[in-house]
UniProtKB/TrEMBL annotation:
The keyword Transferase does not apply. The keyword Hydrolase applies. It comes from Microbispora corallina. This is CBM6 domain-containing protein. Residues 1-10 have a biased composition (Basic residues). Residues 1-23 are annotated as: Disordered. CDD domains: CBM35_Lmo2446-like. Belongs to the glycosyl hydrolase 39 family.
Length: 746
């Protein structure tokens, strides 16, 4: 999706600002055009450098913040409430790879085949646009409901299949116009029949965010809206009597707009069209899942409607897309009365980024801090236990799992409100004797910095802690705002692997790569094995690499039968490149496996070897490092390479390339760009920075349309060797452009 609109769609967020169409999906919004600013500026937090506590006067760091976990006070089964996503998988359902999907144990997914325009584009009859959307839904469901993920709830957005994805044409024939629902019923019949015939299990969501005019122009809770709702409900119930029907998926919560919820619930109660699952969006500033979930339950009670599952099928707004915020939302969702919840998607919809949990690098998709926060939340298995819940701006949830012999706590701070010393006290250890050995508990604290990419968590604390008064206290520093933290009580944590791999490779060369596996836990690991592999940016095994054990020239190095607590084993691999090694970026990944405490352990880590362009080369923008909300796009023809970089619609996005110059001197830098009619009138502009120096503005005259590309040139000073060149939408720029590639020349 490009940063500029393909259709006139404003994306809203609760504050009333707006975003341009084509930016992120209209699905998630609650703002108008300016919301894209929040979107891109927020994404910038994910990839920006970390800030010290002293650097931010708004951050509290005066004293130790004390949090508690009571292992003896069990509350409810840990259901991974927040482990759902909105879109973030490719149209064919094949990407991203299982290595990023499986560890999250995703249990809910929401999509509607946003891809092809649907019923509206087919001129209100069943045609290729509707079929393409349905095909995408089925393909995604087959992937996501394949064992062991067969229990994933798939909420299909019927309004998306219909084509109402934000900014529908002015002449759109909305369902039940003038009381005529016949065409809408035809659409429901055809769509539900085909989805039911696919053999997958679907939850049918009738309409997304009808309280926003960009998705439902006739107005929510009007006669037409209720005609649309009731007719769809009855048709779905007739065609799929056992299926779950979900709604109303309002953008605003009962706390923010109680009158809308009251009108809806009163009508569906009277009409006998109450959805089986109540859905809403928690994307306000701040929609706390605990309080919103309770307000939903109260609203049902007030209208005499029996309680039923609640789904926050979009949560976490654009200006809170950091590792710390992700952990905060998941900690609060764990304590809420929601059945499931799905992360909103702010760079939607066929991009395989798992709603921003993955970051695109020149070497392929990679996890970021958000992914690791979700990954840590997925480790809250077994039974949830009582905690101090929220102290100031910091939330904590925890679980204990005797089957896995561990207790895990997740901590996150909402919008970076705290840095400084932290202490988590775990009480009630007598209720978990399997955690205590000789009066000691082994505690590990993982820091999850808000970084992208992030291939592994950082061990901030790992010690045997003495039990006193049936409790231990684990101290650590909350190092930087937007961090997330996981605290593990387990004798198997931490296990770590690292590799010293080259960051650039040349054809016909040989490299020695040491791989180190460390048993940081409090027990002996058995059958410890390591491996090393090279991958292309597509995630496929890289051609042109031969990797063998350095000591034996065998394809695999021998394992270690036993590795005692605190010990490491170093295995050296020889990596040889062929003389015809394809030019490109590569990822080297080391994997370590072991058995410990009856568990299978697997850890991995990666290093990216990035291709450097040379003077005179066409350096594709999409192969550079994207930050600040810059996004990949392919929806405008004429680009070179595999696509272009978009989302330059608000200050913050940037793309960085590395260009090698043989000699220092002045060079011309050519940018190939497009600047269409949407956005500010007149010439656009961007900032160019070389090697971290001061930015210089470059003018980007309008190109007439987003499908028309042009060139703009600016002189730059390069050093001999590698130069980093960044193009960004800076504070003094007009922005609103797409970037195809750059070329440096003498």
């Amino acid at each position: 999706m490009s940063a500029h609109p393909k259709r006139l769609a404003t994306i809203r967020r609760p504050g009333g600002t707006a975003a341009a169409h084509g930016q992120g999906r209209g699905l998630n919004g609650r703002k108008l055009i300016a919301v894209l600013g929040a979107l891109c500026a927020t994404a910038a937090l994910v990839v920006s450098g970390q800030h010290s506590a002293a650097a931010d006067s708004n951050v509290s760091s005066a004293s130790v913040k004390a949090l508690t976990v009571d292992l003896s006070a069990k509350t409810k089964r840990s259901a991974g409430v927040g482990l759902g996503i909105l879109y973030g998988v490719t149209q064919d359902g094949l990407q991203p790879s299982d290595e990023y999907l499986d560890p999250l144990t995703i249990n809910a997914y929401r999509s509607g085949g946003w891809y092809a325009g649907g019923w509206i584009k087919d001129k209100y009859t069943f045609g290729p646009g509707t079929q393409a959307n349905i095909d995408a839904v089925i393909a995604e469901a087959k992937r996501l409901q394949r064992p062991p993920r067969h229990k994933v709830e798939y909420q299909v957005l019927l309004s998306d299949v219909f084509g109402s994805t934000g900014g529908a044409p002015a002449n759109t024939l909305w369902p039940c116009t003038d009381g005529d629902c016949s065409n809408w019923i035809t659409f429901i019949d055809a769509t539900v029949a085909k989805l039911q015939a696919a053999g997958q299990k679907f939850t049918y969501e009738i309409w997304n965010e009808p309280d926003l005019s960009i998705f439902w122009r006739p107005g929510v809770n009007t006669e037409q809206y209720f005609q649309m709702w009731d007719s769809a409900y009855r048709e779905i119930r007739r065609l799929a009597p056992a299926a779950t029907i979900a709604g109303p998926s309002f953008a605003y919560t009962p706390e923010r707009r109680p009158e809308e919820w009251q009108a809806f619930l009163a009508h569906v109660k009277a009409a006998n069209t109450v959805p089986d699952e109540i859905t809403n969006h928690d994307e306000g500033t701040v929609d706390d899942p605990v309080t919103v979930g309770q307000s939903l339950a109260d609203a049902l009670d007030a209208n005499g409607i029996a309680q039923r599952p609640l789904s926050a099928n979009e949560y976490q707004p654009a200006d809170r897309q950091t590792a710390g915020d992700t952990a905060w939302y998941n900690a609060r969702l764990a304590q809420s009365n929601y059945a499931n919840a799905m992360r909103g998607n702010w760079s939607c919809c066929i991009i395989p980024n798992l709603t921003g949990l993955l970051t695109k690098t020149p070497s392929g998709w990679a996890p970021n801090g958000n992914w690791w926060a979700m990954r840590t939340y997925a480790d809250l298995t077994g039974t949830l236990v009582s905690t101090s819940e929220q102290v100031g701006s910091t939330a904590i949830s925890a679980s204990e799992d005797p089957a896995k012999k561990r207790a895990v706590a997740l901590l996150g701070d909402i919008q970076g409100g705290y840095v400084g010393p932290m202490a988590v006290t775990f009480k009630g250890l007598s209720s978990t004797p399997w955690l205590v050995r000789d009066g000691l508990v082994h505690a590990t604290v993982y820091r999850i910095p808000d970084q992208a990419p992030l291939y592994t968590r950082q061990v901030a604390f790992s010690q045997d802690v003495k039990v006193e008064n049936d409790a231990i206290t684990v101290p650590f520093d909350f190092e930087s705002k937007h961090d997330a933290y996981g605290v593990y009580l387990s004798w198997t944590e931490p296990q770590a692997i690292s590799l010293d791999a080259p960051t650039t490779v040349q054809p016909g060369s040989t490299y020695t790569v040491p791989v180190t596996f460390t048993n940081g836990g409090g027990q002996t690991d058995r059958d410890v094995r390591t491996s090393l592999a090279a991958y292309t940016s597509d995630g496929e095994p890289a051609p042109g690499f031969t990797i063998t054990c350095a000591d034996s020239d065998a394809p695999a190095c021998p394992g270690v039968p036993k590795l005692a607590s605190g010990q490491s084993t170093v295995v050296r691999y020889t990596m040889t490149t062929s003389a015809d090694l394809p030019r490109g970026s590569y990822r080297f990944t080391a994997v370590g496996t072991a058995k410990s405490e009856g568990q299978d352990i697997s850890v991995k880590n990666s290093v990216d070897a990035l291709l450097h362009c040379e003077v005179g080369d066409v350096c594709e923008a999409e192969d550079g490092a994207l930050s600040g909300g810059a996004c990949l796009a392919t929806d405008h023809p004429g680009y070179t390479g595999s696509g272009f970089v978009a989302c330059f619609t608000t200050r913050g996005p940037s793309v960085t390339q590395r260009i090698v110059a043989q000699d220092a001197g002045t060079y011309s830098l050519d940018l190939r760009y497009a600047a269409g009619p949407d956005g500010p009138a007149g010439t656009r502009s961007a900032s160019v920075s070389v090697n971290g120096g001061d930015p210089h503005q470059i003018s980007l005259p309008l190109t007439g349309s987003w499908n028309t590309w042009a060139d703009a040139t600016i002189p730059v000073q390069l050093v001999a060797g590698i130069n980093t060149i960044s193009v960004s939408y800076g504070s003094g720029d007009a922005g609103w452009f797409n970037l195809d590639h750059m070329v440096a020349a003498k």
